[in-house]
Each structure stands twice: as C-alpha cells, then as structure tokens.
Amino acid sequence: MNTLYSMQNSGNSYKCRLISALTQQDLNVINVDPKRGDTRSESYLKLNTLGKAPILITQNNAIISESNAILFYLAQSTSFWPEDVVLQTKTLSWMFFEQYDHEPSIAVRQSALMRGETDEALLQKLEYKGYRALDRMEEHLKDNSYFGEEQPSIADIALFAYTHNAHKGGFDLDKYPAILNWIEAIQSLAHFKSYEWQAALHKEFSNS
Ligand SMILES: N[C@@H](CCC(=O)N[C@@H](CS)C(=O)NCC(=O)O)C(=O)O
After folding, report:
1. CA pair distance 178, 172, nearest whole angstrom
2. Which residues pair with 28 in a beta bridge?
3. What CATH number has the domain spanning 85-187?
4. Which of 5, 8, 12, 49 to mutate to test the pocket of ligand 1 (most atoms within 8 A of CB)?
5. If you take atom 5 of ligand 1, which residue's CA is the nearest one?
6. Which residues line ligand 1 (CB under 6 A)?
7. Is domain 2-78+195-204 given the CATH code 3.40.30.10 in the classification?
8. Sheet with 27-31, edge to edge strand ranges
9. DSSP codes joined into one string, 14-50
10. Gap from CA of 143 to ligand 1 centroid (Å)
11. Which terminus has fewer CB within 10 Å in the chain: N or C?
C-alpha cells in the first residue's frame, strides 16, 4: 500500500488524501506536524531534504515529493487523468498555474493572516495576485464544467484544495458564481471527503 506523509492542516496534503478517497485507494497516512519539529527531524529530512509535506512512499518504495506529482501518480488508470494528449497537456497547464500563481497567493495569504502578518503592502500584493488567479479560474468555468473540461481531473483536485478555503485568506468568492458552482460540483462527487477527514489508516509521525 502507498504511504503518505501528510500535514492535516495543509491543502497540498489534502489534495493527495482527497484523490485517494475519490479513486477508492487505501492509503497509509502518517501525520506530520512542523510545530512538533517532525519535518525538521533527521528521519524526515532523509525523505525530503526540504522538510516539506506531502511525501508519498509508493508500494515499491519510490519516494515522491510535490503534491501535484503525487496526484499524477495516484490518478494513473483513473478518470482523473484524461486519455487525450491535449487534455493531458491542459491538465498540466492548470496544475503549473496552481503552483505558480494560485497557491503562492491564495494559500500564502491565508498563512500570513493566521500568523498575524502586519505588512499591509505584502497583504495587498497577495490579495491582488489571488484575485487575478480567481478571475482566470472564473473565466474558464463560465464555459466549462471542470478544469478537465467535461469531467473532473487532477487539475480540479489541485485547484479545489485551496480555493474552497479561499475565504480564510480574506478572498470573497461571492463575486465568482462559476467557481462557487464548481466547488459544489466537486463536493458532490462520489466518495468526496472534506478537508477535516482522517483516513482510516492513519497514525502520528514518530522520529525513529
Ligand atoms: N510545492 C510543494 C509545497 C510543499 C509545502 O510547502 N508544504 C508545506 C505545507 S503546505 C510544508 O511542508 N510546510 C512545513 C515546513 O515547511 O516545515 C507541494 O506542492 O507539495
């Protein structure tokens, strides 16, 4: 079985938990907590020198970092990875957008507010960039049901993780009716699990 080193309060880790639930794949989940020092421990740094989560250890012991790469691995042979090469390429395009334009503004502003950031210029810059990312998503979703176009793909899972919690970063989604409909559509998928869900097979990280 695959094992996921996962932070419970992280959209990047949630993406991987969610795709495993949606595709009905059992997953061993090991909860890591940076506040406890887990991600800076010697044994964790051996898995990923950057000390970041998530990390997937495959059943053949391959170590895979980067949430969107893990989505790709877990979605092989499922409908979340399209067969058509143009759709595959568009899926990757949205996933690169998620990591470069979306997560660094939407998720980073949420973290900044949570730590009580007082740098107004920084908060405004993140707000501007975040709304530009949301504008781009809204434009696409006006004409398409999903980022996978006709059906949900791993690009939808990548983008859902932080978008459905965008209000925590101070973003008002009421201005985005197409995004709100899409969020509801993802939450209505068979076997959908919420951000708070704990996989059946989970345990806490131990530095040994
Ligand atoms: N691009 C990476 C980002 C990973 C990342 O930044 N993870 C954060 C949580 S969202 C983390 O591990 N933070 C803990 C730390 O830096 O100690 C991915 O998508 O997996």
Report:
1. 13
2. 3
3. 1.20.1050.10
4. 12
5. 52
6. 7, 10, 12, 34, 39, 51-54, 66-68, 99
7. yes
8. 63-65, 55-57, 2-6, 27-31, 202-204
9. HHHHHHHHHTT--EEEEE--GGGTGGGSHHHHHH-TT
10. 32
11. C
Burial of 178 (0-12, 13-18, 19+ CB in 10 A): middle
**Does residue 190 come out as left (phi exceeding 0), alpha (psi in the -120 to 50 range) or beta?**
beta
C-alpha torsion sign, points 14, 80, 141, 136: positive
> Which segments in the chain show pLDDT lower than 50?
none
Ligand 1: which of 52, 168, 195 to mutate, judged by most atoms within 8 Å of the beta carbon? Answer: 52
Strands (E), the chain: 2-6, 27-31, 55-57, 63-65, 202-204
Q: Give the pLDDT confidence of 91-147 residue by residue, as tens digits.
A: 999 999 999 999 999 999 999 999 999 999 999 999 999 999 999 999 999 999 999
**Average pLDDT score over the chain:** 96
Query: Do residues 109 and 130 touch, judged by C-beta distance below 8 A?
Result: yes
Q: Where are the domains of the chain?
A: 2-78+195-204, 85-187
Tokens for 146?
A: 């999903």
In ligand 1, the atom with minimum distance to the C-alpha of 7 is 9
- Quote the pLDDT of residue 91: 98
Instruction: Give the pair of three-digit tokens for residue 77.
Output: 């042979």
